Amino acid sequence: MSEFDSSVINDKCQLYGLVTLRVLIGWHFLYEGISKLINPYWSSAAYLLDSKWIFSGLAKSIVSNPTMLSISDHVNMWGLTFVGISLLLGLFSRYGSIVGMGLVILYYLFAPPLLGLEYSRPGEGSYLIVNKNLIEACALWVLYCFPTSHIVGLDRFLSKSNSN
């Protein structure tokens, strides 16, 4: 993909809105990652065991294999943390957006809000097809399409050093 044309964001209000969205999602990812990292008892096992739909078999296979479960736990903890840092600081934020999108799409696919699927863990609300994971994935897509880190973020310094 070609370099992003900053003239697409032609309004300060758009820029501020996109930067705010990037920082808020970054904070959410960072907090989720760190809260898992500092909790010695956290594991993705409970979430995976509650999985329904097309990935439920894969989820049970991951939980039954200690090595795969450890990989899943580390990918979640560190993936969330690194995506959060990336988005908050505006450092490699396009990559952070893609990785974050991948994570929340996987969360969605392992536990989609579809009719007939009931989960043992308490839900935060009543959803049908669209839930916070799908919305956050779409917001990350917007951030990927309209990156702001080259204007407000550490990527600004990297793009200047590359253009010299």
Shape: globular
The tally of strands reads 0
Mean pLDDT: 88
Radius of gyration: 18 Å
Taking the sheet with the most strands, its summary is: none
What is the N-to-C succession of helices and strands? Answer: HHHHHHH
Percent of residues in β-strands? under 5%
The end-to-end distance, rounded to whole angstroms, is: 21 Å
Total domain modules:
1
Oligomer: single chain
Alpha plus pi helix count = 7
Low-confidence runs: none
SS-derived structural category = mainly alpha
Helix content: 55-70%
Structure description:
By secondary structure, the chain is mainly alpha-helical. The protein has one domain (21-115, 124-163). It is 64% helix and 0% strand. It has 7 helices and no strands. The radius of gyration is 18 Å and the shape is globular.
What secondary-structure arrangement, pairings included, does this model have?
Elements: H1 12-37, H2 45-49, H3 56-64, H4 66-89, H5 93-110, H6 132-145, H7 155-163
Helix pairs in contact: 1-4, 1-6, 3-4, 4-5, 5-6
